[in-house]
Write a structure and sequence with these properties.
Blueprint (H helix, E strand, L loop, with lengths): L15 E4 L9 H6 L8 E8 H6 L3 H11 L4 E3 L4 E3 L10 H12 L7 E6 L1 H13 L5 E6 L2 H5 L6 E6 L2 E8 L4 E5 L8 H6 L1 H11 L1 H9 L1 H5 L3 H21 L16 H10 L6 H18 L5 H9 L1
Parallel strand pairs: 1-9, 2-3, 2-4, 2-5, 5-6, 6-9
Antiparallel strand pairs: 7-8
Helix pairs in contact: 4-5, 8-9, 8-11, 8-13, 12-13, 13-14
Length: 313
């Protein structure tokens, strides 16, 4: 027997930006990112937009088109923003992935072009999978529009859709080119979906940062009332902790069995499927965390006082 063996190392740079008014002409962040390749004079851009965002903010389509008209030099919007259904139903088959891939092929979007997803976590998942599997990887920029996608899923490196009754059964690990968290995009979000993202922040605080958990407790009333500054800080600190875990845990692509960031998710994914996704992901994670915490107390791994604090929060 003979064998050839080499270790292949690949480095990724993942940048998560925090801004307000990403599509305002005076905000040059997005254009600077799109034109950051000095070897190319022009870049094609395909934008995929969450229909739910359009329903909540009817001016967003014109705002995006006006933005790209104002920075047309070096950047070409290949077509009007493509609208896809938001929410978990968009992930239940290959339809939207295929439609996005058709647009990529039709408009000659290449590996030096960009596919930008603007929406909640489900839309980011679908667009990310389409981008990762077209040309074996087109540059992908995420602009999350929910609390949960800004503080957790949007800053990660996973993409996926549901299949065979299982959540995210088909997917990829493919880091985005960049993530842009725009606080203003949360303004029109219904309270239910603003609140749903808190569970992921509590999750990562419990497994990674005691002081962050204490901070969430101290600011619980302000967060319940969606006060701007506490909400911004929760999103920033949660995103930073998620990104730190992905980049420093030694297992970013989850080859091993230990997956701390899935705390509360084992039951959550099943609950989402059982409810036919009427239960939002963040709500299911809150239930899943509660189940794991109560189970831990019953098994003698967690004291009653800590259990009560977590359930109360």
């Amino acid at each position: 027997m003979s064998v050839i063996e080499r270790n292949i190392k690949v480095e990724y740079r993942l940048q998560v930006f925090f801004t307000e008014g990403v599509f305002k002409p005076a905000n040059g962040l997005l254009k600077d990112l799109l034109c950051s390749d000095p070897d190319r004079e022009s870049h094609k851009v395909l934008i995929v937009l969450d229909e739910a965002l359009v329903r909540m903010s009817s001016s967003i389509l014109k705002t995006i088109q006006d933005y790209f008209e104002s920075c047309s030099e070096g950047v070409t919007l290949v077509c009007a923003p493509m609208l896809i259904e938001g929410g978990e139903d968009s992930k239940n088959n290959f339809h939207y992935v295929t439609e996005i891939q058709k647009k990529i092929e039709q408009h000659g979007v290449c590996r030096h072009s960009y596919v930008i997803a603007v929406g909640g976590g489900a839309v980011l998942d679908v667009v990310g999978l389409a981008a990762a599997t077209s040309h074996r990887g087109v540059r992908h920029i995420r602009i999350p529009t929910t609390t949960l996608s800004q503080d957790d899923s949007g800053v990660g490196i996973k993409n996926g859709i549901n299949a065979f009754g299982k959540k995210n059964f088909i997917g990829t690990f493919a880091p985005p080119f960049a993530v842009i968290n725009d606080h203003l995009l949360l303004e029109s979000l219904p309270d239910r979906h603003k609140r749903a993202g808190y569970s992921e922040a509590i999750k990562v605080a419990l497994i990674r940062d005691e002081e962050f958990f204490n901070w969430i407790e101290r600011n619980a009333t302000a967060l319940k009332d969606f006060k701007d500054e506490p909400l911004k800080e929760l999103i920033y600190r949660s995103a930073a902790l998620h990104l730190k875990h992905i980049s420093t845990s030694g297992d970013p692509f989850e080859f091993g069995s230990a997956r701390p960031l899935d705390f509360g998710h084992w039951a959550a994914h099943k609950l989402e499927a059982l409810s036919h996704y009427r239960l939002a992901h963040g709500e299911a994670v809150a239930v899943g965390i509660a189940l794991d915490v109560v189970y831990s107390e019953l098994m003698g791994y967690l004291d009653t006082s800590s259990t009560e604090r977590i359930l109360s929060l």
